[in-house]
Structures are given as C-alpha cells and as structure tokens.
Amino acid sequence: FQVKSENKKTIWNTEEVPEGSEFDDTWDPREKPEYEILFKQHVGTEDVFFGMTGKDPSTACCEDIVIKIKLPETKYSDITLDIQDKVLDLRTPKKKLLLHLPYPVNSKEGRARFLSDEETLEVTLRVSRKFDFINSS
C-alpha cells in the first residue's frame, strides 16, 4: 500500500513519526534514571467479592498509571516535567528521562509529588480510554 504525500520530497508522513520524538536527543550526556511503572485501579466490594463490574487484575482495567522515578541528589526545584498524551519528559541537571507511556493519558489531570526522604518523584496519570465492554465506568 502507498501513502500519497502532498510534497513529493518527503520520505514519511507526520502520522508515522511517534509523538515525543522531538524531545529525544541521543547526544544528551545525562544518564537515564531508574524508574518503575505501576498500574492502579479503583475497586470496591462489588469487584472483590462479587465480580459485578467485570474488572480483572489486568492493565486493561486500570484507571491510573503511577511512575516512580529515582532522582538521587536532586532538589525539587531542579525538576522539569512535561507530560503529553503519550509521553513523559523529565529533566534535571544530572538526569533525563523520555518515556513513551504504555497507554494514552489525560495530561491535564495528572499529579506529581516529590518524596525527598526517598529521593523519588511519583507521577500519577489518569489513563484516557474509550468506553468499551471492559471500561464502562
């Protein structure tokens, strides 16, 4: 199959370039911090005991993504965080993380907190999903 381009000199369409590629700088010498991605879902007794809502432990039923990023020797004021629908971009003077998220998120509803005693940034993002037979709430 061929994609028709309006400009004959282009070698790809803008739809083929993943979101967040403009932030990826392979020449940046800052190291990538350790991070962990966790999934969180809101369950009640109707889910746990009766299985009434049809939720299961898979990531398809999770409402939030929690990303824990280790930032040793970093102050809260040194952190720059940019969240888009599919990309998390974090920069500090010593560390840089460009993370393509596993699911699209609502970038306006996220929250972040810096746990200074653990030297960890915890970012919680609401997953943006279309309603289907699993995600009906």
From TrEMBL:
Family listed: Belongs to the PIH1 family.
GO CC field: cytoplasm
Gene designation per UniProt: Pih1d3
A single MF term (Gene Ontology): dynein intermediate chain binding
Protein name: PIHD3 protein
Pfam families the record matches: PIH1_CS
InterPro entries: DNAAF6, PIH1D1/2/3_CS-like
GO biological process: axonemal dynein complex assembly; flagellated sperm motility
Domain PIH1D1/2/3 CS-like span(s) in chain numbering: 32-127
